[in-house]
Specification:
Number of helices: 22
Distance between the termini: 109 Å
Strand content: 5-15%
Structural class: alpha+beta
Largest sheet: 5 strands, mixed
Helix content: 40-55%
Length: 654
Amino acid sequence: MKSKTSCFNKTIFKKNVTRFWPIWLLYMGYLVFALPVNLWLDMASYNRWDVYTQTQRQLMALSDTLGAVLNPLPTFIFAGVSIMAVFSYLYSARNANMIHALPVDRLELFVTNFSSAAAFMIIPQTIMFIITVFVCIAARVTYIQYILYWYGATVGTTFFALAQGAAVAMLTGHIAAFPFYYVVANFLYVGVVSLAGTLVNTLCFGVSESWEPKQSGILSPMYYLRQSVGVEKITDKDYMVTSIQLKGMQTVLIYVGIGVVLLVVAYEIYKRRQIETAGDLICISFIKPVFRWGIAVGLGMELGVALTDTMRYRMPGNQMPFALLMVCVLLMEILCFFVAQMLLKKSFRVLQKKRVAECAAVLGISAAFLIALEMDLFGIERYIPALSEIQSVSVNMDYPIQFEGEDVQTAMQLQQEILSQKDEFLASDEVHYVGFTYNRKDGSKVRRSYQVPVSAEYIGKADSTARKILAFEEEPDCIRQYLFGKDYENNEYYAGSISFTLNERDEDYHFTREELEEIVAAVRADIDDGALAKYQLMSMWDYEDTEDETDPENEKYCNNLFISYYNPDGVKEIGIDYYTENVNTSGGFFGGSYTSRMVENGQEYYPYEKNGTACVVFGSDCTHLIETLNRLGITTENRRLMTEEEYNEQYTEQ
């Protein structure tokens, strides 16, 4: 009689299905509410609005539902639970010996268990696809191809999540360690980038980057799939949806290919796995040093930075003491290193000479890295993009000022001045933050933020950096752009008001159209005279009580003056590049997301808001505005202009 070699065992498969039925039942329940029920409710909701066409209702309902259900988080969670369940016998010495004593080889066990986990998810997905198609027919949704896209993307994501989970399951012999390793496998790269960014922002003067991975984020699967796979709405200028695009299938196919490799790796590890490793935190000996170093460096640095942040708020000065950071990080790394070793050995006796020497090596590398950042050996702190790469520069102390063309060099010189005075600026107590945003021609940005002294003595110096920036901010054209937008010449001013305090009550006086015209003219005149500028500049205000009559804070009125305006071409604020900033919207079941894009006649655009409101802060030097308010009878004996000092005195007397 011929012997047969099989890669699949029906008995084990049936036992897995009957034993772990709550998993696929829960997943089925999630899918029922996430897809067919959610789509039916969304469609019913949009049907109540007559402003939408039937096509728009379908597209909006599909985008809302699919944007939520394409979120990979539930898929990865259920995939991890399924893999952990079918391979749970590996985490108990008794069960591992019993299963491997059966007349089945490891290939048959591996394939059968992986197939069981896949069946827990793909069969419910297939059933939900069929049900949703019938729901679409009942709800008069004709774009069924989008449901097919969801099915393909979800099955591909599921395969990768299961393959990744299988590889992780083979690395450990402890069931409690599996969820930890599974999360680490999905977010390790993003976590490393985030930690490195935190250290750079902490130690490098002025660096304030967000440090989010772009294409390299593919090394963190769940994070990257969350960013890449989803629904994109295409809207017209009236914000009506004209079509939707489902994106990310290419990314899913890449991960499917990676999943095949991981599956082969997982089987090869399983084939060589020692049964005696059941219960061990890590089953492969050469990975144990990686675990110790990873916990020590990654978790140790994170805890060290957090501890330093907690302590620095109780210390004087604006600068984080480097010595304090170094001590906190190294102490946390020592703690994390030996805790990791305790977990690996399952013992408190871990202070061997070999491990102490290894810990010293970890500390040496970490200290060298921190010192290199502090001394800016990587050139991050003093980095300024090349002039040929820059489209424009936005400098923001009190409000953004745009530098373009030849003026870009002026902004670059201002930043170099700040860098050359780093120690002096960090030692100053009275500071205001100045932001630099370099808009590159390729669409990327470089951001820096520096604390600049703004004491009366420092601002009084004509050659000080703060004084130079203030000189730009005080220019009449910059003030007009700040208050009324870049294209203020085309504005139509249609409403306005000013607040007064009457008998302890705040009341608003609303201007007529004729009054508004004269108020706007007066504001323009005070801008041209340079009288209004200083009241818009927060950096010049002294927040401490002072008797200095030249202090803008003592001359500023606390009456709120608002002017509303309309611009047919849109209100364009200075320092903002609307055409490179995407609009991301989150929402939906389990936090799904979609991106909104506007297209008209084949051209993509981002519309400007056409209405704006300026808050005009003014004071006793604004003679044109004060005279106009008096002449029009807006200010009276009861409706008075009051400085902060007069306002406080009024309540003191009462």
